Known about the structure:
5 helices
Amino acid sequence: MKINNAVRYRIKEICEEFNISLHALAQNAGVPDPTIRQFMQGIHDDIKIKILFKICKGMNMSMIEFFDSKIFDDVDDD
Length: 78
């Protein structure tokens, strides 16, 4: 799996875990809703580390906690 797809999966996993929508995630993170929505829909293939940091901060989690998921064990380097 490519890293961007793993990040998408992890964001979806976090939303399900906290029972929030992508819109609520964007609000918590202080990130424009289209930024997250377009990444999640695959319109944009990459997400900035700064955005991931804001997502984590908005969810009261560290970047380490974000990446501490088995989904990242199967990431390809392509």
